[in-house]
Every structure is written in C-alpha cells, then in structure tokens.
Amino acid sequence: MAWVNYACASPILPRPYTPIVATLGYVLSADGRRCLMVHRNARPGDNHLGKYNGLGGKLEPEEDVMSGMRREIREEAGIECLSLRLRGTISWPGFGKNGEDWLGFIFLVDAFSGEPPASNAEGDLHWVGLDQLAGLPLWEGDRHFLPLVFDDDPRPFHGVMPYRHGQMLSWAVSR
Fold first, then answer.
1. Where do the domains of the chain lie, and which CATH numbers do they carry?
2. Comparing 146 with 13, which gets the higher pLDDT?
3. Do the Cβ atoms of 52 and 136 come closer than 8 Å?
4. Predicted confidence (pLDDT) at residue 3 exceeds the cutoff of 70
5. Start-end of H helices in 4-160
6. d(Cα 106, Cα 161) in Å, to the nearest integer?
7. pLDDT in tens, 98-147
C-alpha cells in the first residue's frame, strides 16, 4: 500500500475559521432620518483612516454581543442604548489589517439617552442623513449591506464578504 501525504497533495489547505468577533451599530436620530457616524480621522495608521463608519468594536471575552454593542456605543458616543435591534451578521474573511477574519453583529439603535460629543478617540462624530450615506467615503463593502440595515424587512440578514489586501472580493447574503 502506498503512503500518501495528503497535507502536501493540495497547495491550499483549509484552515479553521477563527474570526475576531465584533459589533457594528448605527444609531438613529429621534426622527429616524439620520444616523451617527464616526469619521475615522484621528489615528494615523488606522486601517479605517479617512472612512466613515458606524460605531462598534471587538467583543470582550466575558460579553455577549448585545452587552458588547451597548459598551461600544457608551465608550464611543457617550450615550446609553435604550432600544437596539440585531439587523444581521456579516462574515469578513481576510478583512483585518493583517488578513484576519472578522465576524460582525450589525445593530440598529433606535432609541438612546444622552448627547454624543463632537468627537471620540477615533475621529469626529457626525449625524448623517440616511439619504447621504452613499456619498460618504465608506468601505466599498458597506455600500452593499447598509441598505439592509435601514430597510423595513424585519428579517435579519446574514452575509459573507471576503477581502484580500484591503479589497472586497465578493458579497453573498441571505435572509
């Protein structure tokens, strides 16, 4: 019987999916026509430098995704979430600065207390009209899923958006 080293038989080996788990939230104004965005302009070397983004970040080991989203909004905008809804999830293989995989839980915050400051450690905070989001410098991939965050469909969406070298490769979504 011939011995075959299967590890060497294929140039591409599957690797376990071990993403960085994160939250991303979009805070709506009281009238529902604007959302709070951060213009990432404060930290040189930031992978998001110059882009607008929702608020959020990595989950802490002891947190569930809802608690993590509330903490991130509190830290980044100084407000307390009173009502938030999970709108969907996105898998971002290869998205990180060094090619790390990310898995994001996307929330819509439709009620909050407090007043956000003008800026945070990542950049300036702006209330942006929902009809103006497409004109902002965003990650190209955000243009694909942002309409799903704000639409009237009550079903959560679940997408996968692979990246390589900072460029989106594809987008697939289901509800």
1. 17-174 (3.90.79.10)
2. 146
3. yes
4. no
5. 6-9, 65-77, 142-150
6. 14
7. 889 999 999 999 999 999 999 999 999 999 999 999 999 998 899 999 99
The whole-number pLDDT of residue 13 equals 57
Give CA 32 to chain center in angstroms: 20
Asked whether the beta carbons of 104 and 23 are under 8 A apart, the reply is yes
d(CA 51, CA 155): 28
DSSP string for residues in 89-116: EEEETT-STTS--EEEEEEEEEEEES--
Residues in the chain: 175
Q: Are the CB atoms for 110 and 81 separated by under 8 Å?
A: no
Average pLDDT over residues 46-60: 89
Q: Which residue has the tokens 């969406």?
A: 157
pTM: 0.88
Look up residue 44 and give its two tokens.
Answer: 């040189």
**Angle 130-134-135 (CA atoms, 0-180°, nearest 5)?**
110
